[in-house]
Amino acid sequence: MKSLINNFPNEVRSDLSSLIDNGGVLRAEKCEHICQLLSISIENLMVKLLPLAASYSKSELSSYKVGAVAQGIDTKGNGISDLYFGANLEFSSLYNSLHAEQAAVSNAWLDGQKGIRSIAVSGAPCGHCRQFLKEVAGNNDLQIILPADSASEIFLPGENPEDNVATIDLSKLLPAAFGPLDLGCEQLMMEATEEGHQLELTRQSDSYLVLQALLAANRSYAPYSSNYAGCALEMKTGEIFCGQYAENAAHNPSLSPYSSALSKMILSMPEFDYDDIARLVLVESPTMVSQKSITTTLLLACNKDVELEYFAADVKS
Ligand SMILES: [Zn+2]
Asked: Is-contact 192 221, C-beta < 8 A?
């Protein structure tokens, strides 16, 4: 990551270094500063950052590194919002892989963003990710940004050909889409209210880690099963990373709470080792759906010495 930052002009390296200490988040004021110094658009900056995002990829199976950079919708008035990194994360079972676009959206959601305005990706989003993005707040106007030299002709070139940017609306990449409205769901992922789902643990705990997992479960998005779920991961060094469950109308592109937490950990600790995981807590409201077995399986694939701490919760009556 540091060597990739050194590929940028000297005057922007300190702004970019904040990405390392800030879990793959580049604040709007730093984005604006970099764009001014380099005289480039935010879209161009997002494309230039893709190799940095891809450097977080854990793709032992495919050796195919994907980076994504998402821009949130919350702005402080200057039109530019915070940027969020994501990279693909592979497990020993293919269908549990986390895609870079999912990781970037999860990063933004965990930071409190209420939607996504645009997302840059190293290559055209796969069908799984197009469907995942269809569930995200802001999807109606969501712009996909690609490096121009890897975009097909259906992408529109940027205003300045030197920008090496090509864009297209998600709606054009996923026409006649199936989405939340088809299942009668009007609230989108990232739109959850501050008060959350009013979950209450069925077994009391005053552990800080458990309460963090409860908070994540309260912020989760589970309109199709009501299986609100969140997890909290503690490292041996004491850092804590949370993950929020997000369902998808097409089911399979749903985001598991453990993948969400693990991805945030990887973005925050590039030198991590799976053996550095000390504890993992899952809090959920189990219904016909439960995250318990998949979380146990995924944890086992990463670290055989840690046992999942499981807490059920009910919605307060
Ligand atoms: Zn994908």
From this structure: yes
